[in-house]
Amino acid sequence: MEHPYGYIKDGKVFLKGFLGKPDREIGEVKEDETSTLNYFEARFEQIKDKVAKLKADIQENQNKGSFLMKLIHLRDSLFESDALGDFIPLIEELNEQEAYLNEIIQSNRTKNLEVKKGLILEAEAMKNDTDWKETAEKFKELKLRWIKTGPVDKEIHEEIEKEFNDAVQTFFENRRHFFEGLALQAEENIKVYEALVVQAREAHDLPDAKMAFEISKRIQKEWKEAGKVPAEKRQPLWDEFSKLNNRIFSRYKRGLNPGPQMHPREVLKKIEAMVEELKKMAHQPSSFQITSRAKAIQEDWKKLPQRKPKEANLPARSYQFFMDIIFEKAFLEKLSHSKYEDFDQKPITEQNQIKSSILKDLLHRDQTELETMQSNSENFRVQTPDFEMMMRKKLSGLKRKVDVKNYILKQLSPR
C-alpha cells in the first residue's frame, strides 16, 4: 500500500528516503494498513508540534542562545523518527532557526568579549594594590561580574580566562605572602619578647641591685624596639615583664635611700621580734586582723637594711616560713567559704576536714611541680652563677610551699 511519504510492504511500514537518506523501516502493520498509516501520520503531527513549540520558545525568551543545543538534538532526531510525513520543511525550518541563533550567539559573544576585556583591565589596575581588605572585596565583586558575563568564542576562551585569572591570582598571592610574612615575623618577635622576659627574671633574682637595674634599663629599651605581635600574645608577657622591672627598680631605689643606719645587733633583734610575733600568729585561726598585721610586718621588713648580718640568715628563713603560713591559711579560708556558703555554720571538726581536703589537693600539685623541677634541674644547668642561683631559689621556694602546707595540715589534724 502506497503513501505520499512511505509505503507498506510484506506487513512492514517504510518511510521513503529524503535528503540522501535511504528508505527506512519504521514499524509494522498491527490491525489493518489504513489504521497503521493513520498512526504514523499522527506521530508526524506530534513532531510538527514539537518544532512549532521550540520555534515559539525561541521567539518568546530573551536568552535565545540557550535553545541551540535543544534545536540541534531535535533536528538530528527527525532523521531517526518513526513517523510518516514531509520532514524536509521541518528540517529546513530548524536550519533557519539555527542560523538565527548562531547570529545572536556570535553577536553576544562579541559583546561578552568587550565586557571581559574591560574586566581584565580593571583586574590589571588593581592586582598590585596593598589595601588588602578593600581590594579583596573589589576582586570578589569583579569575579562575580566575570561569572555572570556569557561565553566568548572557543578559540580565545582559554586566553581570556588566563589573563583575568592571572591578574586575580597575582593580588591574592601577594596578599597571602604579605600575611604569611607578618605571621612569621610575629613568631620571631614573640621569641624576642620571651627572651626579654627570661632576662628580666634572671635580673630580678640577681643579688646585686645595681647590676639588676642596669640590665633592666637595657632590656626595657630593647622591648620598646621589638616588633609587632598580636595583642593577646604580647599582653601576658608584658604583664610579667613590667612587674619584674618594677620590682627591680623598687629594690634599686631602696638601695639608694637606705634610711638611717642600724647596728647589726639591732637588725637581728628586730628580725627575731618579728619572727616571734609571726610564729604566734601562724598558730592562730586566720582572721582579717592577723593578715592585716602580717602585711604591716612586711612593710617593717622592707625598711630593714638590704645587707643583713650573717646571724640573721636562719631567723630570716623562719620569717618567710611563718609569713607564708599566715597568708596560706587566709587563702585556704577564702577557698573554703567560696565552696560552701554555710561554711561558718558547720562544726569546727567539719570545717577542718574541708580545709584539709582542699589543702591536700593543693599540696599534691606543689609536690608534683617540685619533683618535676628536681628531676629536670640537671638539664637546666649552665655555666653562669646567676642562672644556678635562680634555679636554687625556685627549688627552695617550691620546697617551702610544700613544707608550709604540711605544717598547716598538721595543725588541722585531730589531736
UniProtKB/TrEMBL annotation:
Coiled-coil regions listed in the entry: 37-64
One Pfam entry name: DUF349
* Keyword entries, A-Z: Coiled coil
* InterPro entries membership: DUF349
**Coiled coil found in the keyword field:** yes
Q: Which domain of life is it from?
A: Bacteria
- Name of the protein in question: Uncharacterized protein
